[in-house]
Structures are given as structure tokens and as C-alpha cells.
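[stage:ingest] chain + small molecule (s-citryldethia Coenzyme A)
[stage:ingest] validated
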Amino acid sequence: MSTETQESAAAGAADGAESLSVTDNRTGKTYELPITDGTVRGIDLRQIKVSEDDFGLMSYDPAFMNTASCRSAVTYIDGDAGILEYRGYPIEQLAEHSSYLEVAFLLIKGHLPSQAELDAWVHQVTIHTFVHENLKDFMRGFRYDAHPMGMLLGSVGALSTFYPDAKDIQDPASREAQTIRLLAKMPTLAAFAFRHSRGQPYVYPDNDLSYSGNFLNMMYKMTELKYEPDPRVERALDVLFILHADHEQNCSTSAVRSVGSSGVDPYSAVAAGVAALYGPSHGGANEAVLRMLSRIERVENVPGFIEGVKAGNERLMGFGHRVYKNYDPRAKIIKKAAEDVFEVFGRNPLIDIAHELERIALEDDYFVSRKLYPNVDFYSGLIYEALGLPVEMFPVMFAIGRTSGWIAQWLELVDDKEQKIARPRQIYTGARTVDYVPMAQR
Ligand code: SDX
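[stage:predict] done
[stage:export] C-alpha cells:
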């Protein structure tokens, strides 16, 4: 390393500059990489070359374990401390005092609404809950036993064909219209998917009811003239929607941002989020947890199941998290809400299996050493089951709540001048310049 680079490196280190001094041992050259917000910019690596025609260095980060993709002010998570805040407000306070539509306003608009703002917001969402009649025909085209999440995925994407004006993503009025439509119609599509899976007639929205009350109406109304939701169930659902509303750059939100970066309409971007959420490692975990608890069947079987997990035969679904290395704060709230719901509907015996799994896992070094704690999906399914929902509907419930977060993050993406179409690079491992082989010679 030349003397001046050694001195500049020493000087840089001495004055605590917000930078990295990087020496490329292949050339002896030293580079100063600025540090901003605890990150170095990937593109700053490209200057590190071995020759003028060298492409330069890239970072390699499969599954983005250590890569920030954007700047966001929507949700803050401290994984080690188990902290979750929407626009700075602790999730515990929002779950106790707020409503889902108020939280949706907070996430999307960036501040808590005045009473007039909230009234107008609720009115706009309420009067947009209907969907075009053709969507009912579209959903009737699914098999009788189609998974509701697959139906939701298809029908959210189909919404883009009913609102061609949604393509004008630079028009604030269009963005506002699609925001309201997505929030308003997601429960309607979800309920239609549920009714389809039961072979029951679709129920139209009832604008006299709250957001969660109307969802229950569209799910469960039968021959009664007017469905009257149990207020305790209505509140439990609203809290669950709040808890699922956003979670910074999770897999499905990253999908919404990546697809949205192509300039596509928000329905298509949100459909990508629904697709990602469907996976058992993500929003499909709540369904997998219930199937797992049912398979364990009795508390006495828990130790044997845990041994199977530690042997690597399967995962303890509902446990572990990419960010939380502590108890997921949402799981704590849901665990308590489950007890409240059981007071109404009777105790679900599977919760005793869940408690025993948690008790053992929180003491066992396999889980403790890997910092595996219950996540949002571990207890939520027990509430959904108590509410009479089939396990296939559990990820659909997650999608309803997450719609507000997907919208908030998409809106932030559209306005972010640093963003452009997402297009990662790769490390190529395949063959090169291979000559074509005629069939007769293969
Ligand atoms: C959600 O990102 C978000 O914010 C997501 C979410 C949101 O609100 O959007 O919070 C919602 O998706 C919650 C997570 C729901 N998924 C599950 O409950 C499925 C079970 N959990 C795992 O598959 C896993 O924990 C993930 C997918 C959640 C996180 O996986 P990571 O961060 O990639 O961790 P990993 O797979 O690298 O695991 C690290 C170690 C491994 O062991 P070793 O290879 O080091 O020996 O921990 C083990 C894993 O085998 N491990 C588990 C485990 N999770 C991780 N072992 C048993 N059971 C588990 N659940």
C-alpha cells in the first residue's frame, strides 16, 4: 500500500470519519467507502477493480439477509428488543386504543387522523366495499375446492382490469382512489372466496356495520334479515387486522415493492404480495401451525414432536423470525386475545399444546441458541379457528390486515426519487459459448 494511502487510511481511521477504508489486496489500492445510516452503498463497490475493463465488485446477499432495499418511515422494528412501531406508535398502544381503519390511515397518511378525517376515511371505505358483478362470475370459475388464498390472488389481480385508470400511478387522485378501493374490497373478495368454498351464496356488504363487522356479515350471514356481529368477535378481528397491518420489508412487502418498481398498477403489485404471503414460510404459517397442532393431537406428544424438530425432520411452525430474535410483540398480544375469544366461544384444547410447545422451546437450547421465539403466526390461527374459520382462510385474514401496509409501502415507493426498477445482478455459474448440437449428434 502506497505511503499516502496508508497515511490517508490512518488519518481516516484517526478522525472517526463515517467511512470504511477498504484495501483491495489484489492491487494494494485503498478505497474510502462512505457510511450513511449504518450502511455502505452497494454501488460504491463497483469502483474496486483489478483493471480498467473490470466490471468491479458487487455484493452477494442471497435472500437479502443483510441488505437494505429502501428508506422507509412506515414501520420500525427492533428485532433484538422485540419492538414494533407503526409511524412511531408502539403496536401495544395501537392494539389497545385504535381501530383497523384508523391504523390504516396512520400507515398510509403518516399521522393519526382528526375525527373529521377519520369519519371521511371510514365513509369512503364503507361506500366502496362492493365489487363489479363480473367478479362474482370470475370467482365462480374456480373449482369448488379452490384454496381461498389462490382465489384472492386471482381476484385481486383481476381488479386491475376493472380500474384501468389505476395505471396512472403518478396521479395523486388515482392513487387515492385505488387506495380506498383496495382497502374496501379486500374483505369482500376474501368473504366471497370463503362463501365459494362453502358452496354458499355470496353476501353483499352492509354499510351499517363496521369494517370488521361487515366482514363477519359477508362471511356468516345466512337467512336472517340483518346480520348482527358479536361485538367481542368484531373487536378481536379488528385487533388482529391491526397486528397484521405492516411489518417493514417482509417477503410480501418486498414483492409489492419489487413488482411496483416496474410502474405497474397497485392491484397487480398487491397481487404479488398476496402470492408471496401465501407461502408457508410467511403468511401461510398460521395455517401450517394449526395443522401442526392438530397433528400433535395431545400434550403428551409434544416432547416427541420437539425431538423431531431438533433432528431437522421439520420446523416448529409459528416459531422463528428473520428480524425478531426475541418474542414477537404481536404474538404476546394475540396470545392474550386468544384467551378473551375463548371466554366467548369456549377453550380450544389445541392452545394447551401450543403453550406446552412454547414452554419447552423457550427452555431448550436448540431454540434458545437460535433465538427462536413465537411469531405472529403461532397463536393467531387458534383465534381464527375459534371464530369458525377453516384453516385455508387463515392466510386470507393475514392478507386483509396487510393490505394497508402494502399500500403504504407502495405509495412510499412511488414517491421515492432514489428508487427505480428493481433489477438485481447475479453470480453466473453456468456454461459459456457452447456450440449448438444438431439432434442427430446428441
Ligand atoms: C411471518 O419478515 C416478516 O416480517 C414476516 C412476518 C410479517 O409480519 O410479515 O413477521 C410474518 O412470515 C412470520 C414467520 C412465519 N413463518 C413461520 O413461522 C415458519 C417457521 N419459521 C421458519 O421457517 C423461519 O424461522 C423463518 C422463515 C421465519 C425465518 O427464517 P430465517 O431467518 O431464514 O432463518 P433460518 O431458516 O436461516 O433459520 C436459522 C436456524 C436454522 O438452523 P441451522 O441451519 O442454523 O441449524 O434456525 C432454524 C433453522 O433450521 N430454524 C428453525 C425454525 N426457524 C428457523 N428450526 C425449527 N423451527 C423453526 N420454526
